[in-house]
Specification:
globular; about 45% helix; Alpha-Beta Plaits; four-stranded antiparallel sheet
Length: about 170
């Protein structure tokens, strides 16, 4: 039994490394040549913050969602489908990374990273997002959108480069 633990840990580390490498690569491609212009004031976010784009033009958000326990499995299946489709089909969607609190599985968090404010606006108009939003609405007990700013974007390639070298 214990002989599988190191192999599984190595497999998990490799999978995590690959995911992070892909995320950094996408971030680098998305921000190359960006002007860093702040978002147009007329395109208001549903989250109450003053700025929703990083200096590179990227938009980073954490969605905090509380799900009705009786509908959790159904919600998770729909969310997995939506997040996969968003990343696969939309070039401006860098990450839709859903997760939940270990001790409270109905507390879902989604790390959302978009190449720009325009990419976000395009995302929320996409058919797969509209389907997700309308079908999960009765399952959601609360929703809070928290727009984020990167403290040190220059360090990201170093962090992920280290993970790549551990392979």
């Amino acid at each position: 039994m214990t002989s599988h633990i190191p192999r599984n840990r190595t497999r998990m580390r490799s999978a995590a490394s690959m995911l992070l490498v892909l995320l950094v690569s996408a971030c680098t491609r998305a921000t190359r040549g960006s002007t860093g212009v702040p978002p147009n004031a007329s395109t208001a976010s549903t989250a109450p913050t003053s700025s929703t784009e990083s200096p590179q033009g990227m938009m980073v958000r954490i969605s905090e969602i509380q799900i009705d326990p009786a509908r959790l499995d159904e919600y998770n299946a729909i969310l997995k489908e939506e997040s996969e489709a968003s990343v696969r089909l939309e070039p401006g969607v860098i990450s839709i990374f859903p997760m939940y609190q270990r001790e409270h599985p109905t507390e879902v968090r989604i790390l959302e990273i978009y190449a720009s404010r325009a990419a976000y606006q395009s995302h929320i108009q996409s058919p797969h997002f509209q389907t997700y939003k309308t079908t999960t609405l009765p399952m959601v007990k609360s929703l809070k959108l928290v727009d984020m700013e990167m403290l040190d974007p220059a360090t990201m390639p170093t962090i992920f480069g280290k993970m790549r070298s551990e392979k």
